Amino acid sequence: MNISKLQTFLTLTECLNFTEAADLLYCSQPAVSMQIQSLEQELGTALFDRIGKKLYLTEQGKLFKPYAEQVINLLGSAIEHIQQSKDLSHGTLSFGASSFVGIYLLPRILGEFNRQFPGIKINMQITSSMHLLNMLESNKIELLIISDQIPIDEARFQATTFYQDELVLVMNPGHRLAREQTCSLYDLRDEMMLLKPKKSATRSYLESIFSKYDITFVNHMEISNLEAIKQGVIHGLGISIVSKYAVAQEIEHGLLTSIPIRETVFQRGINYVHYKSKHLSPATRQFISMLDF
């Protein structure tokens, strides 16, 4: 088994068409067929079903795919590390981040990183936590930056907290509570609360705090995007509890008002996560050293 066969297999799993795969790999269709047949013989099982003119992955093919991805990506990481071992004049910084982290927390650090190391290509993936973890497991990325409310396999992954993110109550400046110095959670029970969807780690965290005080928001609206929540609050749609960092500009310019809640402080850690046994690239190690708030 060689790398070329694995790359051919992975390319074919994406397009499921021998002609298209041959075009993508700059080779002939018979060459693709021979590579796949050879790989199937080595594994002793069919990886694709050919039904009529259509191609489908077999169950064995689906099982084999993530392992093939890990091998290809790990080799790519090894080559990248060797290239970066001399200096950081070129290479790639590849990592994933949750929406809040990627949109609000990291741009300043990435700007500084880019100024110091202009030859390093930055590849930041912003997507769901589940997808990010899958990418980390398959070695598509070296590093995750996510909330500490997202569960990880601590036997395999190392999580380090580098920032404490405070969440604050925000409202339109014309809201009835906006002139108060503080408020109680119980003052908010009848308000329209704008929340992330149920599967969101932020939503789960907030509800765990609400439950401690037996607070239930009968009137609530689910909005999946933080920017949309901010705009909803600005325009009087309701109130919300969001990252203080994410609304700092809106508060400074008078578009939103924030007041403390007497019963509790909402605070979560932001972690960087990587494989415990993985040798991180020089670019990634340098980036981690800059995660200082």
TrEMBL record:
Which InterPro entries does its entry note? LysR_HTH_N, LysR_subst-bd, WH-like_DNA-bd_sf, WH_DNA-bd_sf
Is the keyword DNA-binding assigned to this protein? Answer: yes
**What UniProt keywords are attached to this protein's entry?**
DNA-binding, Transcription, Transcription regulation
Q: Name one GO molecular function term.
A: transcription cis-regulatory region binding
> Source organism's superkingdom?
Bacteria
Under the heading SUPFAM superfamilies, the entry gives:
Periplasmic binding protein-like II (SSF53850), Winged helix' DNA-binding domain (SSF46785)
Query: What sequence ranges are listed for the domain HTH lysR-type?
Result: 1-58
Is this entry keyworded 4Fe-4S?
no
Q: Which Pfam families match?
A: HTH_1, LysR_substrate
Q: Which family does it belong to?
A: Belongs to the LysR transcriptional regulatory family.
Q: What is this protein called?
A: LysR family transcriptional regulator
